[in-house]
Amino acid sequence: METLRVEGLTKNFGGVTALNNVSFTVETGERLAIIGPNGAGKTTLFNLLNGQEIPTSGRIYFFGQDITTVPTYSRAHLGQGRSFQLTTLFLKLTVLHNILLAIQGTGAPRYQLLRPISAYKHLYNKAQELLESVALWEKREELVQSLSYGEQRRLEISLSIASEPKLLLLDEPSSGLTAAESADIVTMIANLGSDITVALVAHDMDLVFGMAKRIMVFHYGEIIADGTPEEIQANARVKEIYMGTEEEA
Amino acid sequence: MYLQSMMTKILVFAIFAISLDLIWGYTGLSSLGHACFFGVAGYTTAILMNHFGATTFLQTAPWSILIATVFAAAFGAIALRVSGLYFLMVTLALGQALFSLAWEWFHLTGGAFGLTIPALNLGIPGFTCTTITLYYLVFVVFIICFLLLRLIVRSPFGHVLQGIRGNESRMRALGYNTWLYKYVAFIIAGFFAGIGGVFFIHWNMLISPYQLGMLTSTYAVLCVILGGPGTLIGPVIGAVVVIGIEYIASLYFPERWPLILGIIFVISVMFIRGGIYPRLNSLWQKLKKRYSYGNTEG
Question: What is the CATH number of the domain that holds B157?
Answer without folding.
Answer: 1.10.3470
